[in-house]
Amino acid sequence: MYLKGGLWLPNDFMADPWARELGFQTSPSVRIPTQACDWTLSNTIIKRFPLLPESECEPLISDADSFTPDGRLIMNQSAEIDNYFVASGSNRHGTALVGGVGTYIAELIHNGKTNLSIWPVDIRCSIRLHTIKRFLQDCLREISVKKEYNACRKGVDVIDMTSFTKYELKSANRSVVDFLQVLCAHNISKPISTVAHIEILHEQDGYENDCSIIYLGEYHFLLVTPTSQSTRTVKWLKTHVPEENSIFLPNVTSPYTALNVIGSKAKYLLSELSDKNFNDFARMTCQFVLCVYDMLMKQGKVYGIINAGYFTQRTFRIERIYLSWRHDIDKKTTPFHLNRQYHIFVQFLLENYNLGSDPWPWSGEPIYRNGEFCGFVTSAAFDFTLGKQVCLGFVRAPSSEKITINYIRVATYEIDITTQ
């Protein structure tokens, strides 16, 4: 409750939120339908202030608001429509967000770019699948990360990575090689059949994307990028394609599939299915995936094979200290930052932590070195092998000191997780 214009204005956050789907039809003049409101939903605020029903009130208004599946707003310039800017899905936090959102959108419209990093709410992390109503339903299913994790440690997991976006880049001459060399931080000239991890940089040398590239021919490449970076990646590539349009950039996500076969017994399983070397195995078309999957699941029973998902893969990534774009690095991070002497990426194992009662770290928690702030947690997960929470984050040193192995080890670190 807060004071506004001489009146007390209560904010009623109900224990049992109520929402109703509003039907809209395409029309030149969009009008939000009037909805009858059940004012009994405000009983929670009345419980706290019994005099409220007898008090004089200003007119009560019931209005509609927009919500998103992950509870975050969506904003930025649309990748599909030029000069179309979006700031929507405030999830009832519009008043609190209006200053920052307005500043960001105004700066983006005026300058064409901004120094702020808003990837978690960037509309370009969405794909067409996210517009389907069932998307939210599928997101709410329970998953057993521990079961999938242990199966991988002791046997074999299969992870369907087909949703990763795949683009072919090819040309009749060196133009595609020169194009990629301008955008990427690595030397693009590598042997055919090589699979390489590359970083795509922007004009300020920060990470625009990180993805994988498969060398199919001298002037023929397959670019594989995580689903959440799909829209952003293709927008960036098409924006920088040479004007002579000598580079073909078809989306080949549908024709090709990807199955990750991982685990301590994965090599044994694959050796029983084929005598070929899988080190140079570049791609598989969708017409064979069901047959291959059935063979894996049938032959893999002896190894305890099961299906695994994103959160299990994420746990292994954090355990092995693999950085992820959007979580650990963003457009402000440069390759220089990751190797500089005053800024280093560190893995932390939490001690004095009660798994059952203490809050879990997620990301954004401040890190303290000998009582002084030195950085933030960027990723976190529970390590089932160690039985501990594992956090990744950058440790920064004052300009007067250089980070060495001894600097990291000879110190006491604390992570502030919701003030604990």
Automatic annotation (TrEMBL):
SUPFAM superfamilies: Aminomethyltransferase beta-barrel domain, Folate-binding domain
Domain annotation Aminomethyltransferase C-terminal: ranges: 358-404
This protein's GO CC annotations: mitochondrion
Domain GCVT N-terminal residue range list: 144-285, 290-339
Cross-referenced InterPro entries: FAD/NAD-bd_sf, GcvT/YgfZ/DmdA, GcvT/YgfZ_C, GcvT_C, GCVT_N, TrmE/GcvT-like
Family of this protein: Belongs to the GcvT family.
Protein name: Uncharacterized protein
Source organism (scientific name): Adineta steineri
Organism classification: Eukaryota, Metazoa, Spiralia, Gnathifera, Rotifera
